[in-house]
């Protein structure tokens, strides 16, 4: 955007240092990179911004230099102009977002006649440096249709060439940035602050014809320096036409209105695509007034560093489709059939719809034929993705089944081991109890023999015998139950081992319960014996004490007789 009323640079009057500086910047501009396309998508050679970004993880450098003349009729000045403009663009995080650094350096030599003398003034500085971000708000070209493909319509010449009113709906982006200018800058208003905001709305229409090439129409509405004393309103209209795969032409109208400077500028030019990452361009610019009159010729280049790793199509939430990049299938022994199906699904063709597009028109144009193909491609990719997910789920289910069987086998082994250990512990406890009972019986027999136990001990023996008889009956019942269990096992051979183990465990529990009942009865017998024994000993002791008392009484009586 031209901002000076009278100044335009003069290359011969520049210092060698400035010449070397701008030559270096120009080399960087042509050796370094523009939503993502297979070929570079540059904003050059015009000054407008397209609505689409360069693409995620793509760095693009754009730059050029221009030479020209300006004449101011009122001030009677002639100015030789040299300028260098640069743009650094980078797609950050997502496809819709782009950060942008751009600026323009200007150097001029002004010749002015004052009286009979001619004065010459050389000036140079950056007109502006701007850092900002652009975000794609609306993209009409990526809204999928809800109907199916009509192949008869695809064959119709009329369907291919008729005008479609919906193509008038543009893609829209918003741009927000900040201007940075140095103090004492001869190309800006003296009271302009160092920092000032800039806002822009960017719209882009893309049209494709089968025989007339591709067209793009870009509209920029710009509000600049709104916080300063000299705000500016600008607008840029750019039409670009693709002639063939390597050449394109453009025409651009730029308007600006402010208290500091207003103008209308027309640009014409073209661009040449050297390869998919490098573009060269040239243009001329002129205006329609003489305060000042402007004529400039510019040359430039655009280059991108393409680190884009995933070819994305922006879709509305809930409409995502296709197969995600980077999906890998993990093989496993014994699953050759499933792995074979997965390998077939992984061999998906990279259906790029952008290979024959030129760099000056964003490839997401509104073409029914193209949209039908894209929709058919998305449907096929979705079906393939669902099939991959089904096969993967089968693999997961198979793995889970094997894991469950292994865990079930381990559980059964663990329960069987615990049951065997419980059986051993029960047998050991039974032996210890039997030994204890035998020791008690032996001790009672000894006591009976030594002390001459009476009928009460015989009754206790009878009770013990009765208990032993009951124990034998219980043992017999246990054997009968065990025999029934064994017969049941023979009859139910087809039942699972889990049921048998459980029955065995229940039998062991019942056996332990009966043993505990026997132990309590024997202990009760022992307690009764001990109580009777103590009772006998108490009776004997009382009888002895009574006898001794009687003897003492007799002795007392005899002593009394002797005394008398």
Whole-Å distance between the termini? 163 Å
* Discrete helix count: 7
Strand order of the largest sheet: 1-2-3-4-5-6-7-8-9-10-11-12
Question: Which blocks of ≥5 consecutive residues have pLDDT under 50?
Answer: 1-34, 312-335, 344-366
Helical fraction: 25-40%
Structural class of the helices, strands and pairings? alpha+beta
| Rg on CA atoms, Å | 53 Å
Largest sheet: 12 strands, antiparallel, barrel
The succession of helices and strands, N to C, reads HEEEEHHEEEEEEEEHHHH
* Global outline: elongated
Average pLDDT level: 77
Percent of residues in beta strands = 25-35%
> Total strand count, please?
12
Describe this structure in words.
The protein is an alpha+beta fold and 564 residues long. It is 40% helix and 30% strand. It contains seven helices and twelve strands. Strands 1-2-3-4-5-6-7-8-9-10-11-12 form a twelve-stranded antiparallel β-barrel. Strand 7 and strand 8 form a beta hairpin. Helix 4 runs antiparallel to helix 5. It is elongated and about 190 Å long. The N terminus is likely disordered.
Overview features:
single chain, 564 residues, alpha+beta, disordered N terminus
How would you summarize the topology of this molecule?
Blueprint: H1 16-31, E1 58-72, E2 77-91, E3 97-114, E4 117-138, H2 151-154, H3 157-161, E5 171-180, E6 195-209, E7 213-224, E8 232-242, E9 247-258, E10 263-275, E11 278-287, E12 293-306, H4 336-346, H5 368-451, H6 455-491, H7 497-563
Antiparallel strand pairs: 1-2, 1-12, 2-3, 3-4, 4-5, 5-6, 6-7, 7-8, 8-9, 9-10, 10-11, 11-12
Helix pairs in contact: 4-5, 5-7, 6-7
């Amino acid at each position: 955007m031209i901002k000076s009323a009278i100044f335009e640079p003069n290359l011969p009057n520049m210092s060698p240092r400035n010449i070397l500086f701008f030559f270096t910047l120009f080399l960087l501009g042509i050796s370094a990179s523009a939503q993502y396309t297979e070929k570079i998508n540059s904003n050059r050679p015009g000054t407008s911004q397209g609505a689409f970004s360069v693409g995620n993880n793509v760095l693009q450098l754009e730059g050029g230099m221009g030479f020209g003349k300006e004449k101011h009729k009122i001030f009677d000045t002639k100015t030789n102009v040299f300028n260098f403009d640069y743009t650094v663009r980078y797609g950050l995080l997502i496809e819709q977002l782009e950060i942008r650094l751009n600026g323009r350096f200007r150097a001029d030599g002004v010749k002015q006649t004052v009286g009979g003398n001619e004065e010459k003034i050389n000036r140079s500085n950056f007109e502006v440096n701007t850092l900002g971000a652009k975000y794609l708000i609306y993209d009409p070209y990526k809204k999928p249709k809800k109907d199916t493909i009509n192949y008869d319509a695809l064959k119709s010449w009329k369907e291919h060439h008729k005008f479609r009113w919906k193509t008038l709906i543009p893609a829209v982006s918003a741009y927000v940035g900040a201007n940075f200018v140095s103090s004492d800058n001869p190309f800006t208003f003296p009271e302009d602050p160092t920092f000032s905001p800039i806002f822009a709305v960017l719209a882009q229409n893309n049209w494709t014809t089968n025989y007339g090439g591709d067209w793009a129409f870009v509209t920029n509405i710009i509000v600049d320096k709104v916080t300063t004393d000299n705000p500016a309103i600008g607008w840029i209209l750019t039409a670009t036409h693709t002639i063939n795969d390597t050449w394109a032409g453009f025409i651009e109208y730029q308007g600006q209105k402010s208290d500091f400077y207003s103008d209308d500028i027309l640009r014409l030019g073209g661009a040449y695509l050297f390869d998919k990452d490098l573009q060269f361009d040239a243009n001329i610019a002129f205006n329609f007034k003489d305060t000042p009159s402007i004529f400039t010729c510019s040359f430039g280049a655009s280059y991108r560093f393409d680190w884009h790793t995933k070819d994305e199509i922006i879709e509305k939430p809930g409409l995502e489709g296709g197969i995600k990049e980077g999906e890998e299938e993990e093989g496993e022994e014994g699953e050759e059939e499933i792995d074979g199906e997965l390998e077939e699904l992984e061999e998906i063709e990279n259906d790029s719809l952008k290979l024959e597009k030129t760099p000056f028109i964003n490839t997401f144009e509104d073409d029914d034929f193209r949209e039908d193909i894209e929709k058919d491609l998305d449907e096929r990719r979705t079906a393939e993705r669902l099939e991959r997910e089904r096969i993967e789920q089968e693999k997961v289910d198979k793995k889970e089944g094997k894991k469950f069987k292994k865990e079930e086998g381990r559980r059964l082994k663990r329960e069987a081991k615990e049951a065997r250990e419980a059986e051993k512990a029960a047998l050991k406890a039974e032996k210890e109890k039997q030994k204890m009972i035998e020791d008690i019986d032996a001790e009672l027999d000894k006591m009976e023999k030594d002390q001459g136990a009476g009928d009460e001990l015989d009754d206790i023996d009878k009770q013990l015998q009765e208990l032993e008889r009951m124990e034998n009956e219980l043992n017999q019942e246990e054997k009968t139950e065990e025999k029934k269990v064994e017969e049941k096992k023979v009859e139910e051979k087809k039942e699972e081992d889990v049921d048998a183990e459980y029955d065995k465990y229940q039998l062991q529990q019942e056996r332990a319960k009966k043993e505990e009942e026997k132990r309590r009865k024997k202990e009760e017998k022992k307690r009764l014996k001990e109580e009777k024994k103590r009772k006998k000993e108490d009776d004997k002791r009382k009888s002895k004490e009574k006898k001794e008392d009687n003897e003492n009484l007799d002795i007392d009586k005899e002593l009394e007789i002797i005394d008398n």
